[in-house]
Specification:
With 244 residues, this protein is an alpha/beta fold. The chain has helices at 13-24, 37-49, 64-78, 101-129, 140-144, 150-170, 195-203, 213-224; strands at 4-7, 28-33, 53-58, 83-86, 132-137, 175-182, 235-238. The chain is built from eight helices and seven strands. α4 packs parallel to α6. The structure holds NADP nicotinamide-adenine-dinucleotide phosphate (NAP).
Length: 244
């Protein structure tokens, strides 16, 4: 039977690259979006037109009921959810003293509570299947911290803590939970960086270049594969050597 993956925030960037790869590898793909109705539906349509199996479903990851409905719809349509990729996330840059309470609440809501909501909602489905793979997209800043990205770094560090704890909780049900910790990846999330900022950042990357969304997608696919069946609670760094 075909396996099914749900990828949150799959309308663009890393999520879209992951959706395309899983579709090409034969999965039913649920492309989750919140605001990007058109790109998400265009992606689903173009995958279907190419003979793959995909659907775009809206759910704001901060809203427990919307997440539960999306999962119900996916199970109804495809019969199971074998892989869940928590990819949705936002960035926030600025000095801690310039960061207001509203922005901090928003970033924790999406980057951390969103992952929590999705993990909580998918757990009963995967426990019943006695099978599942949860892959959470953290960040290298969650491991080592970034200056002027205190709230972002803290939210991504939270994702790592959540991943490790949930891996222990769900291992007896044959469910693995892992995180990927990307370095600087070429997506719209980094479109606000000036050319100079980008250049000086790249000079710090041992492999000497920015990463591609496809390279994160490939790591997600590996963790979802049978080759990774004995890996759980781990944080896979995909960062060109930035964090060693
Ligand atoms: P991106 O291109 O900005 O895409 C972010 C995605 O998150 C969008 O598809 C967006 O969907 C979705 N999203 C935001 N809020 C949401 C919500 N409340 N509910 C559902 N979806 C929501 O970013 P990206 O670079 O691909 O980043 C993907 C993940 O990788 C993020 O978690 C990010 O923190 C992490 N990451 C990125 C980098 C990097 O350098 N790019 C590095 C390390 C980690 P809508 O437009 O539909 O709202």
């Amino acid at each position: 039977m075909k396996k099914t993956v749900i990828i949150t925030g799959a309308s663009k960037g890393i999520g879209a690259a992951t959706a395309i790869l899983f579709a090409q590898k034969g999965y039913n793909v649920v492309i989750n979006y919140n605001e990007s109705y058109e790109p998400a539906n265009l992606l689903a349509r173009s995958l279907c037109e190419n003979g793959f199996s995909a659907v775009a479903l809206k759910a704001n990851v901060t809203n427990r009921l919307e997440v539960e409905l999306m999962i119900k719809e996916a199970v109804y349509k495809f019969g199971s959810v074998d892989v869940f990729v928590n990819n949705a996330g936002i960035a926030l840059q600025g000095l801690i003293t310039d960061t207001d309470e509203y922005d901090v609440a928003k970033i924790f809501d999406i980057n951390l509570k969103g992952v929590f909501n999705c993990c909580r909602a998918i757990t009963p489905v995967m426990v019943q299947q006695k099978y599942g793979k949860i892959i959470n997209i953290s960040s290298m800043w969650g491991e080592v911290g970034a200056s002027c990205e205190v709230a972002y770094s803290a939210s991504k560090a939270g994702v790592i803590g959540l991943t490790k704890a949930l891996a222990k909780e769900l291992a007896p049900s044959n469910i693995t939970v892992n995180a990927i910790s990307p370095g600087l990846i070429d997506t719209t999330m980094n479109s606000l960086l000036s050319e100079d900022e980008l250049k000086s950042f790249i000079e710090e990357i041992p492999l000497g270049r920015i990463g591609k969304a496809d390279e994160i997608a490939a790591s997600v696919f590996f963790l979802a594969s049978d080759e990774a069946n004995y890996i759980t609670g781990q944080v896979l760094g995909v960062n060109g050597g930035c964090v060693i």
